[in-house]
Amino acid sequence: MKLPKTFCALMLAATLGGCTSYQKSLYLQHEEVLNESTKGQLYDFRIMPKDELTITVSTTDPEASAPFYRKIGQSKDGGNNSSIGMDGAKLLSYLVDNNGYIDFPVLGMVKVMGLSNRECEALLREKLQPYLKEVPNVTVRTANYKFSVLGEVNRPGTYTTDAEKVTVFEALAQAGDMTLFSIRDDVQLLREDSTGIRKVYHIDLTQANVAQSPYFYLQQNDVIYVKPTQAKVRTNTFNSNASMWITILSVITSVTSLVLALTR
Fold first, then answer.
1. Is residue 231 in a domain?
2. Hey, how many other C-beta atoms are within 10 angstroms of the C-beta on 225?
3. Which among 63, 218, 219, 240 is most buried, taking Cβ atoms within 10 Å?
4. Whole-angstrom Cα distance, residue 102 to residue 113?
5. Is 256 inside a domain boundary?
6. Which CATH number fits the domain that encloses residue 203?
């Protein structure tokens, strides 16, 4: 039996379309690109304006280091005591201002914008050295690192983390991964730089070389938007229209039944 040419063409188009959709749903294709790369770079989180930093300074003599951290002077038993040590205090975070400075006790205004946490620790350690008899132990942590994931993911929302680096895949994992109706080769990333300029960047998660992209690691307050496929939009539109027409038909049927009942 010889099949019509039109039927064969339709079957071929459907097969090719299915293959294309399958390829577009896969992450990290062509991983050989990464194997051939000889350039490696470890990511470091950089401090930006509006970051909140938790900074602790400690020495073998707690009284000597006490002036160099911000605290709420409340003891463990609830009483106020401005001379308590680190164990009885609640630390306050340092807000980085729009010019990249923090107001540090005794030292005054210190510029930290653009530094990694390790570099900030080294800078503060150097500035504190003249005030102490020993090299202090300084720890810097980011207290408000958050990002948002919107669109075709299973759990859209804003997420916070204690980690100093988060990849776009880790962010999507937090949001329950993309749905089957998501566009993976054009994920949008909204980012604001240290000068307040906002830009949208496009990321292709189907290609392995995304791991070499400058947008692979997220920054503070990044927003990831996953666009829906046309099929999802059509489905939602159809469901919405179908619901509307069912409601209209139901009303018409009820009115018609009422009219017929009154005319009998």
1. no
2. 16
3. 218
4. 9
5. no
6. 3.10.560.10
Give the integer Cα–Cα distance in Å for 242 and 98.
Answer: 51
What is the DSSP code (8-state) at residue 130?
A: G
Q: How far is CA 122 from CA 34, 125, 127, 136, 171, in A?
A: 34, 5, 9, 10, 30
pLDDT, average across residues 237-245: 57
Question: In 3-state terms, what secondary structure has residue 145?
Answer: coil
List the domain range (segments joined by +) for residue 130: 52-142
What six digits make up the tokens of 17? Answer: 């379309």
For residues 30 and 8, give the distance between their C-alpha atoms in angstroms, rounded to a whole number: 32
CA distance 74 to 82: 7
Report the number of distinct structural domains present in the chain.
2
pTM of the model: 0.70
- Report residue 264's pLDDT band, with 50, 70 and 90 as the boundaries: low
Task: Looking at the structure, tell me whether residues 89 and 163 fall in a common domain.
Answer: no
Distance of CA 221 to the CA centre of its chain: 6
Q: Which residue type is seen at 238?
A: F
Paired tokens of 139: 């720890």
DSSP of 161-212, one letter per residue? -S-S--BHHHHHHHTT-B-TTB-SS-EEEEEE-TTS-EEEEEE-TTBGGGGG
